[in-house]
Give the backbone structure.
Amino acid sequence: MNTKLIKFNKDYTSKEIRECADILLQNKVLIHPTENLYGFGSIISNQKGIDNIIKLKKRQKPHRFIILISNYSQLSRLAFVKSNLEYALMQKFWPGSLTIIFKANPNLNNKYSYNSTVAVRMVGNEITRKIIDYIDIPIISTSLNKSGEIPINSVYEIVRRFSGKVGGIAIDNIHHFQNIASTVVQIKKDKIYVLRRGAIDENELYKI
């Protein structure tokens, strides 16, 4: 497989965004930047791409993927917002490093949901947000690592290890990365439960 390298050096040009979008629309895997990490990405309707990501990560059993969106209309296709606290968290931290576990839309394929819930984030990285906005299809996303290992964030290592295994690599030379995953939360009975500590300070969450 030929892997296309798309570099974002100073700006987000429509040409580069379109090149990344085309890779996803061709049902290929795109390595893309998020807020502080790179991730494997595939449009949610691309089962072949999702299977390829599972293979690359060497996952031995099914695992929930985070779904990235670029706007609120995409969220309505995936989930129901059930509480004022969920709305408040979105207003404060989206776009950004907060993943929220919502009640899944019944029309959502079961392979994206878990116990009738779905993990969604309006991605903070502007490059990836523009790519998703261009295709207007949410993407599944997961960190660049084998299950249980530390995520790979070096562009040199990413290119070395995954060239020929994915459709494209979007290289973000604009933002700085801190190798911190998103914070994952779920709201139950108007309380915030932190399921994964990450880039957002828990004290900031509790202020909401």
In short: The chain has a mean pLDDT of 92. Helices lie at 14-25, 47-57, 72-78, 84-93, 126-135, 155-162, 202-207. DSSP finds seven helices and eleven strands in the chain.
